[in-house]
Structures are given as structure tokens and as C-alpha cells.
Amino acid sequence: MQLHHVLIDTFDAKGLVYKISELFFRHNLNIQSNSEYVDREHNKFFMRSEIAGEINPKLLHEELQLLLGEKANIRIFSPLKKRIVLLVTKESHCLGDILIRYEAGELNAQILGVISNYETLKPLVDKFDIPFIHIGHENLSREAHESAIISAIQKMGEVDYIVLAKYMRILTSVFVETFPEKILNIHHSFLPAFVGANPYKQAFERGVKIIGATAHFVNNHLDEGPIITQNIINVDHSYSWKEMQHSGRDVEKIVLSSALKLVIENRVFVHANKTVIL
Amino acid sequence: MQLHHVLIDTFDAKGLVYKISELFFRHNLNIQSNSEYVDREHNKFFMRSEIAGEINPKLLHEELQLLLGEKANIRIFSPLKKRIVLLVTKESHCLGDILIRYEAGELNAQILGVISNYETLKPLVDKFDIPFIHIGHENLSREAHESAIISAIQKMGEVDYIVLAKYMRILTSVFVETFPEKILNIHHSFLPAFVGANPYKQAFERGVKIIGATAHFVNNHLDEGPIITQNIINVDHSYSWKEMQHSGRDVEKIVLSSALKLVIENRVFVHANKTVIL
Amino acid sequence: MQLHHVLIDTFDAKGLVYKISELFFRHNLNIQSNSEYVDREHNKFFMRSEIAGEINPKLLHEELQLLLGEKANIRIFSPLKKRIVLLVTKESHCLGDILIRYEAGELNAQILGVISNYETLKPLVDKFDIPFIHIGHENLSREAHESAIISAIQKMGEVDYIVLAKYMRILTSVFVETFPEKILNIHHSFLPAFVGANPYKQAFERGVKIIGATAHFVNNHLDEGPIITQNIINVDHSYSWKEMQHSGRDVEKIVLSSALKLVIENRVFVHANKTVIL
Amino acid sequence: MQLHHVLIDTFDAKGLVYKISELFFRHNLNIQSNSEYVDREHNKFFMRSEIAGEINPKLLHEELQLLLGEKANIRIFSPLKKRIVLLVTKESHCLGDILIRYEAGELNAQILGVISNYETLKPLVDKFDIPFIHIGHENLSREAHESAIISAIQKMGEVDYIVLAKYMRILTSVFVETFPEKILNIHHSFLPAFVGANPYKQAFERGVKIIGATAHFVNNHLDEGPIITQNIINVDHSYSWKEMQHSGRDVEKIVLSSALKLVIENRVFVHANKTVIL
């Protein structure tokens, strides 16, 4: 049985759980799983329900909106596959991890294409019968290059998420604003440590004993978007920065794939530049 | 503002969240925090609510029981301090960790006394003005020794939890049945690996690369009670078993104190020899 | 500059480091990296050196043997690629992780072939232009099936390591003894917890809060060979055993690939059914 | 049998291990444990040996210096207890953890005294019969306050390490330069993230999913001294910054005590603002 997911965030008020659960009960919808969280600081209420039963999404949305008021943010997701696009540069570990999961049917997603500023990863992508689109950045302004990428994405039809799987170029605000809350990035450090270029070299020079990786939504401020998942590995003095980078790949790919799984499962709310994960 | 905690577990049925939240709403109780979990395998529903407002616990209990039926297990906890007793042998790390937290006011608990089969830790306990009761096991049968401990505990009045903070003797079923679901133990391994005596020596001999600790409720089957928390540390070939034991102390004390915090905060349900933690 | 690796294990004696380093010094060999470990319990000395310079491996071996006596175990490895064979059944995560690393040139290894008792993973292996050999076990005795696999392996010429990348059949002692200390396995639990079949189901039923994976050499006793690497992830009451299995895959693949890297880099000694890793 | 520790760091050269081990061999000293590391980037050699046997430290030092040249940094440590002073403010978790270990005889150290700018922790320190010295900072310039602390420390005689066990004031360069490479600090974040005041609040506002703690030597640049140990715990959206702070205490105390153990065991080299730990 496939489930619909209902995600609600709104200002907190007495009786919200009661009102919402009453509406589901009245419609004879069975709540398979339910999670709520109240952010006391901002007085915000978050709720995610997995519901079984026949629903008319449009009607249910209208009723919930009527019940909770105009300010409530209500999202109802069908079990359809998410449509995603991957952006990469030259490194294959994150891309490869996603491709192997994809091939195994682990991801409730359809990969529409992989776009890269280099041709390095074309042979890998070709193995999986996924369109590989090379859009070189040489001799192009940043704007022109991004504009070509945006066009390529838009030709693919509706896109749910754009995954930067080690895409090593900084995006302009134009790009980011074209796909708000739809861009996932893996940053190869434990943010907010080592913002910016070559975090492993920075980590090496600082002599840290732990390195990390951070998956986050991209907003206009470089490496400052809402964090979805983080993880770490231990290193010691014997690691060169190249070895840190090499070891870091294992944590990067697991962190990015975990974040991708969370967004595909409709578990992530964004609020006040943070994520609430239910 | 201090909160009451309501814990409910019962067979799952459509509309439980609605019914319970409606009752809270009707009584003008504000739900500060709410968590539910449904165990689909056993069709069991678990709910923990933190509620603010004036309540008559006895009356609320009756109303909930009426609403949910006789089979529902309903517990309502006031913000009162938990009354706990510690059992120890000779090692001070778990005891010490609890005492330092206690002294700092971190635990919503009153330590009624520390009981030990040795006098080793009396000087430490005395520093904190907590009764230390030495009940040696020499020349006593296991039954007679435990009987003396049970008497000593019962003289302390009502007891919420008995914490085995590295108490190195196996308890008989008589003892365990006297305090059902009230006894917490720290087992110095990653259960179910290395059940029984000297797990560090067992771990050393097996050549493991990770050692762990497990806090669990004690039932009649040695080291087989419901697990509350576990954690691990990395070791390598250079560790002797004494060094594993020494390093293991850090994880033991944190795991036991974390489990103690969970039970003090009324977050732990026991079901089918497992815990549900909300 | 490519390095030779010299691995020595022998009974400990005063002056071993001096004698060995003197010999290297006399031959004008530069020690790029040196690690020693003494197991006091067994009075055993382990040393791994990475040396730069022109060497005659045969001659160096003879001189070291002469210096250290007949009982010393001396291994000298050239920078040649290790020749490996993978055995798999139906799950792709460990295989896929190795293939992606292989494709990226991360492994100093040549994959001679992938053998499976099912055809499930043939399409994945075919993408990477590696021979896939299907040897079904149906209608064959265990011995006959293994005999066919042994033949297939032996046709591939010299083999350094056989990697069981989720090969879900138990090997007989005949197979194990054919390739002593050459077979790596990934066990999907934190050994020695949950030896045997379906460890995730066992873990689920025990209600553990942490699950793990163990890479080990295979010897005649099921799941009891020397442990190379282990790692864990946290789980909670909300995981079904299928979800534990699913989440466990991430740790399985990283643990197996890490162990494979260690053996490829000639870092692993086996002694007293444990590993020493330098 | 108690061991002497010999720590050597110098520029790397061919034959160092040979020369040093030859000298030990010639003096009939048994190397119980030996570790070397070469930092290729700076061409620096580090070696730590635990040696058994009768030694004349002064003479051995001279011979090693003669052998290795003037630029070699040679330290020979007897098994004597380290003499340490603790500085604290109001929080007891790090102090308490050290006191419990101290009471259990775990630390090869003598605590000469605890100095604080508040009287809050006097009752705790008094329990352990350790001098507590209150030096309030009110109505004093930073310089005058520190000057009083320096005087108090100097009255205690020779001091090996000064441990800032949650001492919440920033030290001036005068203080730091008075005790070079002798001051250990616990910073309540995963440095270099969240340098400065109230890192938990910063972490909360950034919405991180992991918080950490860092033990480091103090130098003139706030929170930028050489890192000794780091560790982390997972948090999620449901943590307020106070809860992050509370949970962070467990990792802070373990990290600080681990770093203290490393320096007490003479395992830490400082070089290029990093540590090498052997």
C-alpha cells in the first residue's frame, strides 16, 4: 500500500493536533505514522503524517487550509517518483553512490540527467543509460554558463530536486533563485568550519582531529543554507590533506545520499534557515 | 512552569490521536510536546505528552482509562523528583559520574543511598553526604545477601529506580521480581556480544576493533533485559584487555547516565523485551 | 615514486629495530614510513616499513631471514596491483561501491572477475567490462558448487584476495583451506553479536540501539575469523528489521571497502586469530 | 616496572631510527614501545620510545644531543607524577570528571590546587581535600586579576600543566607566555567552527546536526592553539541551545580528560601549530 504524505507547518495554537487528527478521522483516513514538533522560540508547529486511504489531494488541501487559516503551509505528496537532476564536475564518488542506489531501485526517484562542466564522468553515466550533458564553462561568463545549465534543466520538464554531487563551481543568485529550496549540495567539511574553497587543505592546516561533511540546501549565501545532515570521521596527524580528502569521500557520499533520501521521503521542513526533520 | 507527563500504550486503533488530543483540548490542557509511535508488528500504539495546566492526575487517569478501555496502560507523572538507590562494588567511574551530576542539580532525582558489597567506595560517597550502606557478601548465601539488600532498600521508603552502577554480582530472580522494571544496569559490552563475566577479556580475545557499553533494564535472564542506550568507542590491536577496560569506562558512564536521564524524564516504554523511547 | 613494503613478524628480542634499520641503512634504502608493534602477551614483534630505493626483493629477503632467523616471517611487496576476485549473490551495494572506486582508479588492484550464484548482478558488472561468471547452486551439492567456483578462480591465474561482497552462502572448509588468509568477508553485524543467518532480524528482535558491520578474514569457523575493521550506526525503536538491513548497507559497504584498502596496502598481519594493522 | 619516555623531534635524515636504536641497544636499554612519524611536508622526524632499564637521564640526554646535533629537541621523562593546576569558573562537569579520576588514582598527576574567579565550586573541591583558591575578577583589571592568578600558581612550585576546565575568561598574552605549551583548554565547539563566546548558541542558530568539543593548547590567538583531541555528538532540530549546551557537557569532559591523559603520558608533540600524537 502506498501512502500519501501530508506536511503542515504553521503558527502554534492550542488544539492543532486535535483539529487535524479530527479532520483525518472524519475522512476515514488512517494515520500510519505521525510526527509533530513545536519550535517554542518561533512558536511554530510542524507536523508530518503518512496516511493510507483514498484521498483527493486538492480537496484535502482546501479543507486543511480552511481549517488552519491562510498562513498555514500545507503540502500533500503523492507516492510519485521525484524527478531529479545531478550536477557534477570530475569526482565520481557521490555520483557513483547515487547511481548504484538508483540501479538497485532504492531511490523513489527518476534521474532526468547528469550535467557537468567536464566530460570526465560521461563514461560512468553512460553505463547507466542516463543522459549526460556536457556544458563546458570555458570561454563563457559565469552567467552565460549558468544560463545554459538552466536551459538544459528546464528542457527536462518539471524538476523536484537539483543535486550538486560535487559540482565544484559557485552558483550565482540567479541560479539559486530559479530553483528555491530545490538545490541540495554536499559541502566537504563540517560546516560552518572551513567555508569556501579546499576545506580539506584548511582542515589539514588547522590540524583538526575530525573531518566532516555537510549536506545542505543552497541559498544565496555560499555554504550558509539550511543543514540537512552531517557526519564525521576521525583523522590524525599522519594524514596529508590529500589523504583527508580521500578519506572524506566516504563520509561525503553517505551524507549526501542520506540527505537525498530524506527529501525524497518528504521529511524535511525549512524554517529560519534551519531544517526540521520529521 | 513544570509539566506533567502522560504516557499511554495500548493496541492501535483508528482515531487514537484524535480522541486523546480531544480530551486534552476539552480539559484546556496545553500540549507542550507530543510524540507517538506505532509498532506495526504488534499493532501497539505509544504516546508521550508533556502537558501544561492544572490537572487532577487521578481524575485524568480515570477519564483516559474510560476513553481508551481497560487494556490501555496509562501513566501520569508529576514533576516530583525520582527516588533512586545505587548499587556499586569497587569501581568509581559510573558512581562518580552520577554523583557529580547530582551535586550540580542536573538530575531530577533524590539519591536515597548507595549500597555496596565492599567498603571501597565509602570515602567517595561520604563526601556527598549520601548514606553509604555496606552489606558484605562474605559468609552469606546469595539469597541471604540479597535479602539484606532488599531490606535495606525497603527501609528507604518508596523507590522509583535501582541503578546498578557497576554492581558486579548477578542478581537472583527473587531480587529482580521484587523490583520489576525498576532496575537499571550498565553492561560493559555491546550486548548481545560478550554476555557474562569479563566482557573486556572476551573482546580482547576476539580481537574486536570496537568496544561498547549497554544500559538495560534487568529481567530474569542475565544481560537480556530491554536495552535503553548503547554506545561504542574504537580500539585497536595495541590495547591490552586492561586498556580496553580502562577506555571502556568513559563509554560506560556516559551510557548509564544517559539511560538514567531517559527514565527520570519518563521517556521509556518497555514492550516485548524492547524499549520504545519517546 | 613507488615504494616497496617490508612486513616482518617474529618473536621479540632486544635490538630488533636496531638490527633491521641498520640493514636498511647499510643498503642505502630510505625508510619513508615505519611502524612497529610488540604484542607483550605473545612476545611477538611486528614491523611494517615503506622503503624507497632500488631493491632486489629476493636478496633482501634472504638477508633479512639470515639476520632474524628462520622463524621470522618476512614479506616484501612490490607496488604491483593486487589481483582480486569478487563473490556476490544478489545485493549490489558492496559490489557497487567497489566498482565505483575501481573505475575511479582508487584501488591498486585488478578485478579478475565477479562470480555469483545468481544472475541478478550481471547487468551491473557488465557495465564495467569485468567478466561475470554465473555458477548457479541449484541441483548441485555444496561441494560440487564450490568445486566449480574454485575451478573458475583458478583459471584466472594467481589471485591475491577473494572478496565476499555479500556472498550469502556458507563456505566449506575445503574452499577456505584452498585460499588461506586470502578470503575477506563482510558480516552484516557487529561480530561477535549475531553470528549466523539474518543478523538484522536478530538485532531487531533483541531491540539493539546500534547496529554494525564487520569485515574479517574467513577461516573454518563461521564468522570467527580475524576481524579487520568494524563500524556502526545508530538505530532506534522505529526501525523495522528491513529498515535496519537497509540502513546497514551504508556501513557494510564502507567497512568492506576500508578492509579491502588495508589489505591492498599490505597493512594487515594475522596473529592468534586477530589482526595487527600497521 | 616503571618506564622512562624519550621524545625526540628533529629534521629527518637517513638512518635516524638506526642511530637512535643503536644507542639504546648499546646502553642495554630495552625499548618496550616505539613509535615514529615523519612529516614529509616539513621534513620533520618524531619519535617516542618507552624504555626500561637503569638510565642516567642527564647523560642519555647529552649523548642523544651529541648524536643528533644541536637542533634536535630531546625530552626525557621520568615516571614522576605531573604537577597540575586547574582553573575553573562555575560549571562542574569537567572539574568533576577530573576529580573522580584523580580520586580513583587514574591520573599519574598531583593536583596542586583549583583556582576560580567564583566561589561556586569550592564545596565540590573541598570534598577532595584539594586547595581551592578564589581569585575574584570584580573591580580588578584583567591584568591585575591574571597577575594574582600567576602569583598563586607560582607559589605552588613547579607546574607541568595548567588545565582550563571550563575557565570562562579569555587569557592575555602575558598569561599565555608565562606558561608556554603548558596550558590546556576545552573549547565547547568543534573548532574552528564557532570560535569565541557562546558556541552552543552559535551552533543552534546555524542549525547544525552535530556539535563537538575540542581540547587544545592555548596560544596567543584565541581558540587557535594546537588541537589535541576532538569529539562530537549528534543533535537535531528539537534541541534548544540550552539543551545543546547540556548534552555538550558529556563530550566536553571526555575530550578534556582524554587530552589530559595524553599529555600526562608524554604522547604529544607540538609542531607548526598542530600536534603529533604518538
Largest sheet of chain A: 7 strands, mixed
Average pLDDT figure of chain A: 93
What is the subunit arrangement here? homotetramer
Query: Judging from the principal axes of the Cα atoms, what is the shape of chain A?
Result: globular
Estimate percent helicity of chain A.
Answer: 25-40%
CATH architecture designation of the largest domain in chain A: 3-Layer(aba) Sandwich
Tell me what the structure shows.
The structure is a homotetramer of 278-residue chains. Chain A has 278 residues and is α/β, with parallel strands linked by helices. The first copy, chain A, has 8 helices and 13 strands. In chain A, the strands form 3 sheets. Chain A has a 7-stranded mixed β-sheet with strand order 7-6-5-8-9-10-11, sandwiched between helices. Chain A has a 4-stranded antiparallel β-sheet with strand order 2-3-1-4, with helices on one face. In chain A, strand 12 (268-271) and strand 13 form a beta hairpin. In chain A, helix 1 packs antiparallel against helix 2 (57-68) and helix 3 (93-103) packs parallel to helix 8. The model of chain A has no long low-confidence stretch (mean pLDDT 93). Chains in contact: A-B, A-C, A-D, B-C, B-D, C-D. The A-D interface holds A 37, 39-41, 190-194, 206-210, 212, 226-232, 236-238, 240, 272-277 and D 37, 39-41, 190-194, 206-210, 212, 226-232, 236-238, 240, 272-277.
